[in-house]
Write a structure and sequence with these properties.
The complex is a heterotrimer of chains A (284), B (294) and C (228). Chain A is mainly alpha-helical and 284 residues long. Chain A is built from 11 helices and no strands. Chain A folds into 2 domains: 43 residues; 235 residues, Orthogonal Bundle (MetI-like fold). Helices cover 77% and strands 0% of the residues of chain A. In chain A, helix 7 packs antiparallel against helix 8 and helix 8 runs antiparallel to helix 11. Chain B has one domain: 3-Layer(aba) Sandwich (Rossmann fold), CATH 3.40.50.300. Chain B is globular and about 55 Å long. The chains are: A mainly alpha (284), B alpha/beta (294), C mainly alpha (228).
């Protein structure tokens, strides 16, 4: 008996230690990335970086103000496109759960999720760029939007399903129609989760480079015109990183740092909004 | 002169006799104080059948959960439905306001009449306005207490100041007003379990339903909260017709006027509660009530 | 929060009190009938007991039992309420028997007064007075939930038994010398017997009151068993 329990305890400790090691291994790349980006990029992050546009080729200095604004605009466009579609599809799937239609829609969303981003970029190029012979921020927004849709659909579906059925029944029993019940009771209940899903989807596509190469392309100059090419952080970082100049390399690191920071801010905002919404519901 | 006096005397005594006759022909003013109905009970109007159910069967797919049930629900009375788990009483209750239709694959056969109108042919949101429901677990909406109670009113077109008075009246009827009047705009989730259930009742009452269906409303509550709810249901009877499903026989005995015993989808016996619990007609009923079965 | 079943309990209590006051009246009237100077007053008093009071007492007995049954079945009364309902049922039975005994006395009163040279015994009025006070006190003890008053009644039962034995002895002595009084003597013995039984029922009620208030069952402890 004593030997058996000793063996059990030893095994337990070994497994525990292995888990800790695995966590450390998982955290190491993150730590490295952060370390590298911060140490290499912080030097080039200054006021100019946020206020100036890129200087002509060969000259040092300048900034990525247009790229930062561009990223915000294109992601915003993508969200505008994807959020209503994603949320409504998510509700549809959640409400008709178990039926053939629901399974089909879910399957389609999963496939869409798996399509390589470059393929999406090429597709949007074919339908929105080539016919008009124009790279546009709008096309970029469409491409990013298409990538966001399955993410939002999935989280919305899951959050809506998590709302207890009794809440919906309570609204129906008072004489509400199905759609009214969903909008006035189920959605507010699922809102914290849905918001998290949306913000995380935004954070995810903020760094997508491949689809933007074919749609929004890039722009050396300041532009907020949606029907013109637009500079975005990932594309600009790419351009500078493969370029020949050291100054460009430094600015690329800075761009990467700003990008990571933007994503981090998004995640923090998501947590904040979620907690706020939850507090409104549970009244704590 | 004397015969004038005589005539007036005769006349007066005739009048008095007539008055006496009229007075003694009127029914006793306090007709409540008979051996059966002691004075002190809230005034309940004469009983009339509010809901008629004829040969009702309810299916979930191929599963026949309710088999050929016929009964009548008296107006302004509380009717309790008892029986072991899975006997179909909850399914039956949900059929009365067609909440069973929420489940895919559910269907019913037979007839249900509310004041003579066919329930299955009625417009469903209108039906649910007249026949309200309170569920087993309190399900407050993620809104303020006020908005919870006002929800039904808003759906059916209520606005502005009439909302405020309706919400207050509803909360008073559910014996919750004093506890929440200072925090109407706080979240409903801040309330305790018993309070949330009373809130659900207030929410259902706000739209003045004619019939209130309650599906095991106290099963998740402690005895004090249960007692409170039973007392408020007792007082509601005068303005509402109540049907309550309960797995707690003693609650049915305490709180209802009529009781129906369900077993395996069938209605075994339907009787006055007093008779049901003192001298039931069917052996199966007696076995259940004495605890020898189920 | 007053529960509605508290109204039901109060209704039961009121019925018991009503029955009690009727029984008290029946006892008083039947003793009056005994001591009546004329056939007329005796007949009136007896009539009231037999025709008016006794039927109402029986009706109340049934009502009390039904209400008690309802309270048990429908309200599952517990603790003090359970003891109260149990006591009310027992008291109802005792009161009903007391009423029957009063009816017997009333009937015998007519018989005595219609016989030649009606005899009167001093013991009987004294006995009646004691019994009357016992009945009055046991009902007061019930109304005011007073166990002390109830226990005090138990002592007087012994006195009543003594009275009964005295009456018996006295009458036996009398008829052994003068046989024409046999009819009356038997009537008087039976009347004293009825009075003694009423006193026994009063002590039963007193015991029920003690049980109701403090939960103690004091029956069969005191040696108040009557001989045949």
């Amino acid at each position: 008996m004593n030997l058996r329990s000793l063996r059990r305890r030893v095994t337990s400790h070994i497994m525990g230690a292995l888990c800790v090691v695995a966590v450390l291994v998982a955290l190491v790349p993150l730590a490295f990335i952060l370390f590298f980006v911060v140490s290499k990029g912080i030097g080039a992050v200054n006021l100019d970086f946020f206020t100036q546009t890129p200087k002509p080729v060969g000259e040092t200095g300048g900034g990525m103000s247009n790229s930062i604004v561009g990223t915000l605009l294109v992601c915003g466009l993508g969200g505008l496109f994807a959020i209503p579609i994603g949320i409504m599809s998510g509700i549809y799937v959640a409400q008709s759960a178990g039926s053939q239609r629901a399974n089909v829609v879910r399957f389609a969303a999963d496939i869409l999720n798996g399509i390589p981003s470059i393929v999406i970029g090429v597709f949007v190029y074919a339908i929105a760029v080539s016919p008009f012979r124009q790279f546009t921020a709008l096309a970029g927004g469409i491409a990013l939007g298409i990538m966001m849709i399955p993410l939002i659909t999935r989280t919305t579906e899951e959050m809506v399903r998590m709302v207890p059925n009794t809440m919906m029944e309570g609204a129906l029993a008072l004489g509400a129609t199905r759609s009214r019940a969903i909008v006035s009771v189920v959605l507010p209940s699922a809102a914290p989760g849905i918001v998290t899903g949306v913000v995380l989807a935004l954070a995810r596509i903020a760094g997508e480079t491949a689809p933007l190469l074919f749609t929004a392309f890039n722009n050396r100059f300041w532009s907020t015109n949606l029907l013109q090419p637009m500079s975005t952080l990932p594309v600009q970082v790419f351009t500078y990183a493969i370029g020949p100049y050291d100054d460009w390399h430094r600015q690329a690191w800075a761009g990467a740092l700003v990008l990571i920071t933007l994503v981090l801010i998004c995640s923090i905002l998501a947590r904040f909004a979620t907690r706020r919404l939850e507090r409104m519901q549970t009244g704590q | 002169m004397s015969h004038i006096l005589h005539r007036s005397a005769v006349f007066t005594s005739c009048i008095l006799k007539i008055i006496h006759m009229i007075m003694s022909a009127q029914p006793a003013l306090d007709s409540r104080a008979t051996p059966e109905t002691p004075a002190g009970k809230p005034e309940t109007p004469a009983a009339v059948i509010k809901l008629v159910v004829k040969n009702l069967s309810c299916y979930y797919g191929t599963n026949k959960a309710v088999r050929d049930v016929t009964l009548g629900i008296q107006e302004h009375r509380t009717t309790a439905l008892i029986g072991p788990s899975g006997c179909g009483k909850s399914t039956f209750l949900r059929a009365l306001n067609r909440m069973n239709e929420v489940v895919p694959g559910a269907r019913v056969e037979g007839e249900m009449l509310l004041d003579g109108q066919d329930i299955l042919k009625m417009e469903i949101t209108g039906l649910r306005r007249r026949v309200g429901m309170v569920f087993q677990k309190a399900n407050p909406f993620p809104k303020s207490i006020f908005d919870n109670v006002a929800y039904g009113l808003r759906i059916h077109g209520g606005k502005g100041s009439q909302l405020e008075s309706a919400v207050e009246q509803s909360l008073r009827r559910s014996a919750l007003w004093d506890e929440v009047k200072d925090k109407l705009h706080r979240s409903a989730f801040e309330l305790s379990g018993g309070q949330q259930q009373r809130l659900s009742i207030a929410r259902a009452l706000a739209i003045s339903p004619e019939v209130l269906l309650l599906d095991e409303p106290c099963s998740a509550l402690d005895p004090i909260s249960t007692a409170r709810i039973e007392e408020l249901l007792y007082n509601l009877k005068s303005t509402c017709t109540i049907v309550i499903v309960t797995h707690n026989m003693q609650q049915a005995a305490r709180a209802s006027d009529y009781t129906g015993y369900f077993l395996m989808g069938r209605l075994i016996e339907f009787n006055e509660t007093r008779t049901m619990f003192e001298n039931p007609s069917k052996q199966e009923t007696e076995d259940y009530i004495t605890g020898r079965f189920g | 929060m007053q529960r509605h079943f508290e109204i039901e309990l109060e209704e039961l209590r009121l019925r018991v009190l009503e029955m009690g006051s009727l029984v008290q009246r029946a006892l008083q009237l039947s003793v009056e009938a005994l001591q009546g100077r004329s056939i007329g007053t005796t007949a009136d008093a007896s009539n009231e007991v037999i025709e008016r009071i006794e039927p109402r007492v029986n009706e109340l007995h049934r009502e009390i039992d039904q209400r008690a049954l309802d309270l048990h079945a429908l309200q599952q009364v517990l603790a003090v309420d359970l003891r109260f309902v149990t006591a009310a049922t027992r008291i109802g039975s005792d009161l009903e028997r007391m009423s029957d005994r009063s009816v017997n006395i009333a009937r015998r009163a007519i018989s005595i007064l219609t016989s030649p040279n009606p005899k009167s015994l001093k013991q009987i009025p004294r006995m009646a007075e004691t019994v009357d006070s016992m009945v009055r006190d046991c009902l007061a003890a019930f109304e005011h939930r007073d166990p002390t008053l109830a226990r005090a009644i138990l002592q007087r039962d012994r006195k009543v038994d003594e009275y009964r034995d005295d009456v018996f002895q006295e009458l036996v002595d009398e008829v052994s010398t003068e046989t024409r009084f046999i009819q009356q003597a038997l009537d008087l013995i039976l009347i004293s017997r009825n009075l003694e039984r009423i006193a026994d029922h009063a002590t039963n009620i007193a015991e029920s009151v003690v049980f109701m208030v403090v939960g103690e069952d004091i029956r069969h402890r005191y040696n108040t068993a009557s001989s045949a």
